[in-house]
Design brief:
The strands form two sheets. Strands 6-7-8-3-9 form a five-stranded parallel beta sheet, sandwiched between helices. 35% of the residues lie in helices and 25% in strands. The chain has eight helices and nine strands. It is globular and about 45 Å long. The protein is α/β, with parallel strands linked by helices. Helix 3 packs across helix 4.
Length: 216
């Protein structure tokens, strides 16, 4: 069965000031699939996600989302189009509670919608649910990562960009996260993932794109 193309990079050049990281990069990601970005450090994997999420503007080439050019759009515009980004590292407000972090995740939705969606998101993360009123900084590394993913899921994204979800997680939690991503893809979310834990990630992925020096 032919899958529609969700994300397309067409001859994209992008980087920082005079240092180009993506060099005439072209690839496609199928709708409702998990696509894994592979390659050595510095190959441009995270840069692909950042450029797609509007954190870097392409110097050349086109980025298409469902056939519509989005290269250089603002994060707000991309969120409105259903793209959510979970960067690597910890990106929580440590002094705020789990619940408050979720509320902030839904700030573009309005509080009424956010509060209506929070219980559904927490069903995926029972450990986080138990600690709803704890400070985010008191959570374990694994729980913090789950909270970050949960915060992105509040937006019910059509496209989920996720950078190194397994960093700092136990092998068991990594499997949980991958299973969740698989479930989301099976429900129609397009997942583009950067992951060093290649063997495990390949088991849940539909496609893999290998990069070297910012090229396919």
């Amino acid at each position: 069965m032919a899958h529609e193309i969700c994300i397309e990079f067409d001859d994209v050049v992008a980087g920082y000031k005079d240092f180009m990281i993506l060099n005439n990069l072209s690839f496609q990601v199928r709708k409702g699939s998990i696509t894994l970005l592979l390659g050595p450090n510095g190959a441009g994997k995270s840069t692909v996600l950042k450029t797609l999420f509007g954190l870097l503007k392409p110097r050349q080439g086109r980025i298409l989302l469902n056939g519509v050019e989005v290269g250089g759009s603002t994060q707000k515009a991309l969120l409105d189009q259903g793209i959510a980004f979970v960067p690597q590292g910890r990106n929580l407000f440590g002094q705020l509670t789990v619940f408050q972090n979720l509320e902030l995740g839904g700030i573009t939705l309005g509080m009424k919608t956010t509060h209506a969606r929070i219980p559904g998101v927490l069903e995926f993360f029972p450990r986080v649910k138990e600690r709803l009123h704890s400070q985010a900084s008191a959570l374990s590394g694994g729980e913090q990562k789950q909270l970050e993913i949960g915060r992105a899921l509040l937006l019910q994204p059509k496209v989920l960009l996720i950078d190194e979800p397994s960093i700092g997680l136990s092998p068991l939690l990594v499997q949980d996260v991958f299973r969740l991503l698989r479930k989301l893809a099976d429900q129609g979310t397009t997942v583009l993932m950067v992951e060093q834990n290649v063997k495990s990630a390949l088991k849940v992925s539909d496609d893999a794109i290998a990069l070297e020096s910012g090229r396919l």
